[in-house]
Write a structure and sequence with these properties.
The protein is an all-alpha fold. The protein has helices at about 10-35, 60-75, 80-110, 130-160, 170-190, 195-220, 220-225, 230-235, 245, 250-265, 270-285, 290-305, 310-325, 340-360, 365-385, 395-410, 415-440, 465-470, 480-500, 505-525, 540-555, 570-590, and strands at about 330, 335, 535, 540, 590. Helix 10 (about 250-265) crosses helix 12 (about 290-305).
Length: about 600
């Protein structure tokens, strides 16, 4: 059973709590006094506020509230509050900003785009000011310190639980090495770099930190690359202060990033700077249990982050190609559409992989569950979006409603419903991600117009809903299905990690609802379907996303324990996967174009 690391410190907890409280109250008073409004979305200020903490931070109320949460849970020593509730609340606040507040601010106040003191440098060729240099180093550096502190706490928890052998390294050597690295990072602020180069350094540093923390937390036994003595880590957990150099679990990808920054600023010395950075990376790798694997990890993370624009461009172009790849084959009164292949294949894989986790005994129960969910997905969309033009739409939130009836159906057959719900929650993000390829071809879930170069995709095929229903042919639109695919891809590994740690099925299902709801709230803000109603400045599916999050929170509170399931393989898993895959393919990829009856046509 997964247990969160215990962290308790009255001194640090109260310090963080009081800091957050002062920041939040200060920001609220600034909105009321300078903005002539309330710190509420329902009663927004009349004027855009740039005074008080708003000259330093864009959203100080949320920053303050986040600090309050951390302080409270550190004071009371609540592992669930610190490691589960706090990150979820922070993600929810980010979703509210990205999915609503920033959009509304841009509409109401042109000056909202202006940077604040702690903003990163702009993407221009201008010469940076001193605060730009400071932020380009200070912001990613602070985030990296936080990341490493979190990793240390989790690593100590993992090693204490597993009692595995750890590599004992020379702490003095690590301290000297880390101190040198800190000096090199600080030196970046003084290099003759342009604003865009400093911005690239900062974003790359933040990207490396985020990627390392993500991988370390879902796979802690193999991704913490420096192993400190247990008593040193314990001193972090119990609240005793250590020198910063001893807290610094540095990643080689960061060292490669530093070498890249120095080589740009000092072109005559670029070979020398790269050589020094490579030497330091080799030393770091030698201090780990797996030098070759560590070096490989450094390079992979570094390349992914610095080549993120190329990665995004490949994803964007691929999405645009798929969006315009509609093909259909008509046999008399029956039409087969190629986008049904994607969802059929996704359903097939979902059953197969679920069978690998729970065995052949649950294979047909998963099929029954899937059939009921698809039926309710169609009924929901028929009620919300059905029209003369949309005879057979499908809706994701109808599938969530269908879970209730599917659960009852599975219960009647004598299966353990929580095992089914748990294992389906694990693979549903990836099933949905593959299914979003159908959305690209069909044109459903499409984005609104955007003017950012290199961000949008264009639809041209006349069969696409974008062209036939929304009349946005050739316009650059937000690739919202692609946004969803990326988010769901990362969610899937988080839930799989929880499954392998024998986490409660209710918690896995609850986190599935919460995380997908958070992503959906943001995605919906950038969608542009004309048939989706807007209620109180939010799109209908943003409200359903909020409801999904609330239900997910309730699910996480249910006292459901994980059962030991022997995953016995059998060919029934394959046959069951074929049945659900074919049904899904037929439901979403085969229609009757000559008929005008309800549920007859997909287009």
């Amino acid at each position: 059973m997964l247990q969160w690391p215990f962290v308790q410190s009255s001194l640090w907890g109260w310090s963080v709590l009081i800091t957050g409280f002062i920041l939040m109250v200060w920001a609220m008073l600034s909105i009321m006094y300078f903005g002539r409004g309330l710190p509420l979305n329902a009663f927004p200020p009349e004027k855009y506020v740039t005074q008080g903490p708003y000259c330093f931070l864009k959203h100080p109320i949320y920053v303050g509230f986040g600090l309050i949460l951390i302080g409270v849970f550190v004071i009371i020593g609540s592992p669930g509050g610190l490691w589960l509730i706090t990150p979820i609340v922070m993600l929810s606040m980010i979703a509210l900003v990205w999915g609503h507040e920033n959009i509304q601010l841009r509409k109401r106040f042109a000056e909202s785009a202006q940077p604040v003191f702690f903003s990163l440098p702009s993407d221009t060729e201008d010469k940076p000011k001193w605060n730009h240099r400071l932020n380009a180093v200070f912001v990613p550096l602070c985030f990296w310190v936080i990341v490493n502190a979190v990793i240390l706490v989790f690593f100590n928890h993992v090693t204490n639980e597993s009692k595995g052998n750890v590599n004992q390294v020379d702490l003095q050597t690590i301290s000297y090495l880390n101190f040198l690295i800190l000096l090199l990072i600080a030196g970046v602020a003084f290099l003759p770099l342009k604003k865009k180069e400093l911005r690239d350094f900062a974003i790359s540093g933040l990207g490396i930190s985020a990627l390392v923390m993500y991988v370390a937390l879902i796979w802690p036994e193999y991704t913490v690359l420096y192993y400190f003595k247990s008593e040193v880590i314990a001193s972090v957990v119990t609240g005793r202060v250590l020198p910063l150099t001893n807290l610094w679990v540095f990643h080689g990808a960061w060292m490669l990033l530093i070498g890249r920054a120095y080589s740009k600023a000092l072109p005559r010395w670029h070979l020398f700077t790269y050589l020094i950075s490579i030497i330091l990376v080799v030393i770091m790798a030698l201090l780990t249990n797996h030098p070759y694997l560590s070096t490989f990890n450094y390079i992979v993370v570094f390349v992914i982050v610095i080549k993120r624009q190329l990665v995004w461009e490949w994803l964007r172009k691929t999405a645009e190609t798929i969006a315009n790849s509609w093909k259909e084959w008509v046999f008399g009164s029956v039409r087969i559409i190629n986008h049904g292949i994607y969802v059929g294949f996704a359903a097939f894989l979902g059953v197969v992989f679920s069978g690998l986790l729970v065995g052949v005994r649950y294979a047909w129960a998963i099929v029954i569950f899937g059939l009921v969910v698809i039926v309710f997905s169609a009924l929901w969309a028929q009620f919300i979006e059905g029209s003369e033009k949309l005879k057979r739409p499908f809706g994701y939130y109808g599938a969530l409603v269908g879970i209730v009836f599917a659960t009852f159906s599975v219960y009647l057959t004598g299966y353990d419903i929580w095992v089914i719900i748990g294992v389906i929650s694990v693979f549903m993000p990836w099933v949905q991600a593959i299914g979003r390829l159908r959305c690209l071809i069909n044109g459903c879930c499409h984005g609104s117009k955007n003017e950012v170069k290199g961000l949008g995709i264009k639809y041209f095929h006349p069969r696409s809903r974008v062209c036939g229903l929304s009349h946005l042919k050739g316009e650059s639109l937000h690739p919202t299905p692609l946004y969803a695919i990326i988010w769901l891809f990362f969610i899937g590994f988080i839930l799989l990690s929880l499954w392998w740690n024998n986490t409660s099925y209710a918690l896995i299902f609850g986190l599935y609802l919460i995380l997908t709801g958070i992503g959906r709230f943001v995605e919906e803000a950038y969608r542009g379907e004309v048939q989706t109603p807007i209620l109180y400045s939010l799109r209908l599916y943003q409200w359903t996303a909020i409801l999904s999050i609330v239900i997910g929170v309730i699910m996480t509170l249910l006292p459901v324990k994980s059962l030991y399931v022997q995953p016995v393989w059998g060919w029934d898993i394959v046959w069951a996967a074929c049945v659900l895959g074919f049904f899904t393919f037929f439901a979403m990829g085969v229609d009757f174009p000559k008929s005008n009856k309800r549920f007859s046509r997909l287009v």
